[in-house]
Specification:
The chain has one domain. By secondary structure, it is an all-alpha fold. The chain has 13 helices and no strands. Helix 1 runs antiparallel to helix 2, helix 1 packs across helix 11 and helix 8 packs across helix 9.
Length: 339
């Protein structure tokens, strides 16, 4: 990131900032809509309207999940190009990265959009299942009042099932997220189709599953800790500062203090998140390169490429390409953004 901040950190800031702005806009609009419905509801309908509004606000959290999946996949592909050329001693500009990515961005966006859709659907299913389970317990609460033991058992059962559903989705997400971790990198570096990239990532992670998963978890912990270390003191300082600036609890002053606090936190979170995205994408690229070095002798191909370039040999084949002729022929024949 220090070596070439423009195409790496700059692009990451733009993507993460876009996600933050969209989330704030969507969440704010839904909050205003929900409070408007609750305030205008009659006393007979207020419970149903409140429940629906809460469910709508909770489901709005799926928006940043989908956008984050898309942004992470796109950035991983772009960063992989920069990392791959850095291993050859080259430093690319944004125009150079765009030139290398040309022809494969459609496939990359298609894959990340499809992955985002799958993630949203499964998270929504889990949320609806858990919400419906607790709603069922609440609907039968009157019949359980006379039996405290039955009421306690129903509540504990609902909680246990919720934890079980959550655990299943976490395990499934970790497994498939690890097995498909290199797909964006492969789409751009090896220029394979989406189907071939998925098969290739599945093969590369065979025997390297726990190492790849451990790196993902380590990067995630580092990013979250860094975010908390930076954001929590600022929240604390602004909380005290807000009380000092507005000791009389004036509503207008409180509103502007809150806006300023969350605005600054949003900017800081965007910067920290952008750094985290670059770290995560770089880690995937380096693990991918390391696995290919160990399995396929990629380091020897990289060395031959560098030596040939230094000797002035023209038309040296890209050492990262795998089955390049087949991949290019398939892409040219289909012309599909999913190819």
């Amino acid at each position: 990131m220090r070596r070439n901040p423009g195409p790496t950190f700059g692009l990451s800031v733009l993507l993460y900032g876009f996600i933050t702005i969209v989330f704030v806009a969507v969440f704010g609009a839904l909050m205003a809509f929900a409070f408007g419905r609750v305030s205008s509801a009659t006393s007979q309908d207020v419970d149903e309207v409140l429940a629906g509004s809460i469910a709508l606000i909770v489901l709005s959290g799926l928006v940043p999940i989908g956008l984050a999946v898309i942004a992470t996949g796109i950035l991983q592909g772009i960063i992989s190009l920069e990392v791959s050329r850095a291993t050859l001693g080259e430093k690319l500009t944004i125009r150079g990265l765009w030139r290398l990515a040309k022809g494969r961005l459609g496939a990359l966006i298609g894959y990340t959009a499809a992955l985002s859709g799958v993630a949203i659907v499964f998270v929504a299913i889990a949320a609806v299942a858990v919400f419906g389970l607790f709603a069922l317990v609440g609907a039968n609460a009157s019949s359980l009042i006379d039996s405290p033991a039955a009421a306690m058992g129903a509540a504990l059962g609902a909680i246990a099932v919720s934890f079980l559903v959550g655990a299943v989705f976490v395990v499934a997400g970790a497994y498939f997220g690890t097995k498909l971790a290199f797909v964006p990198t492969i789409i751009l570096l090896e220029r394979l189709t989406i189907r071939e990239a998925i098969k290739r990532s599945w093969q590369l992670t065979r025997g390297n599953f726990w190492r790849t998963l451990g790196m993902q978890l380590l990067i995630g912990v580092i990013i979250n800790l860094a975010s908390q270390v930076i954001s929590l003191p600022i929240s604390f300082i602004f909380g005290i500062g807000g009380a000092l600036i507005n000791p009389s609890s004036d509503p207008d002053a409180f509103l502007w203090t809150t806006i300023g606090t969350y605005g600054l936190l949003g900017i800081i979170s965007s910067v920290v998140g952008a750094v985290g995205l670059v770290m995560q994408s770089s880690a995937y690229s380096l693990i991918y390169i390391d696995i290919r070095m160990r399995r396929e002798g990629l380091d020897l191909e990289l060395l031959r490429y560098v030596e040939a370039k230094q000797s002035g040999v023209a038309g040296v084949e890209n050492p990262y390409l795998v089955q390049a002729a087949t991949a290019e022929a398939t892409h040219a024949a289909t012309g599909s953004p999913w190819s």
